[in-house]
Write a structure and sequence with these properties.
Layout lengths: L6 H20 L3 E4 L2 E4 L5 H14 L2 H27 L9 H8 L3 H28 L5 H25 L5 H21 L1 H15 L19
Antiparallel strand pairs: 1-2
Helix pairs in contact: 1-2, 1-3, 2-3, 2-5, 2-6, 2-7, 2-8, 3-4, 3-5, 5-6, 6-7
């Protein structure tokens, strides 16, 4: 854990955690995209997966694992302090307690769903990206990014929607939300893929590295290997 990290890696981690925090707040609103409904978090959450792709591609799975756990910690900390702020008595002149609680007071079920979906989806995304890179000997970055997103985002959407909304919304709505989220996030990835490719190429050049995970442990809990 005494390994040094670069400024670019640090910035990538900060942006990654920021995207997660923002997406969880946005998720309190359900929006309509054409005939489909989805949490508003789909507007920014795909950026976290794109950054995950960049980190796994440039610095490797071990560094991605560190960032994923950092994001988990940031989200858990935010959820705990949101709950604390809601429980503390409001000032007599404060008139927005109900709105404050509505936006930031996600139920325990929603928080659990979000954290579980994030962990499974993020680790699957990084794992597929890493293994696929070894299989293709570093070629076909675009295909690796799309496939890893399909797997990660698909798992994330399935887990989050099922844990958070089964028994609350009708089954057709649940299925629609799962499919809509997964497809929207994947389309998002495809649209910005040219930019992602440029960013990866530039970061590799600046960092002077292109990591291949030949001897890495894929155990999500092996944080000592960074």
């Amino acid at each position: 854990m005494r390994n040094k990290v670069s400024v670019l890696f640090l910035l990538a981690g900060v942006v990654f955690a920021s995207c997660l925090l923002i997406s969880n707040i946005l998720a309190s609103k359900i929006i309509m995209i054409g005939p489909w409904s989805a949490p508003a978090g789909v507007l920014i959450f795909p950026l976290a997966y794109i950054i995950n792709d960049v980190i796994a591609e440039v610095w490797g799975y071990a560094k991605a694992r560190l960032i994923i756990w950092t994001g988990f910690g940031a989200n858990l900390l935010a959820a705990l302090f949101f709950m604390l702020a809601i429980q503390l008595p409001a000032a007599p002149f404060y008139q927005s307690q109900e709105a404050f609680q509505t936006i930031l007071g996600s139920s325990t079920r929603i928080v659990f769903a979000s954290l579980m979906a994030y962990m499974v989806g993020s680790f699957l995304n990084a794992y597929v990206m890493s293994r696929f890179k070894l299989m293709t000997k570093g070629k076909n970055f675009s295909l690796r990014a799309i496939v890893s997103t399909l797997v990660g985002e698909g798992a994330d959407s399935l887990i989050f929607i099922c844990i958070a909304f089964v028994g609350i919304f009708p089954l057709p709505v649940i299925l629609g939300m799962i499919v809509t989220q997964a497809l929207l996030k994947t389309v998002y990835e495809i649209i910005v893929l040219p930019l992602t490719f440029v960013v990866v190429k530039k970061v590799k050049a600046i960092e002077g590295i292109d990591t291949f995970d030949e001897n890495v442990s894929y155990n999500p809990f092996r944080l000592k290997q960074v």
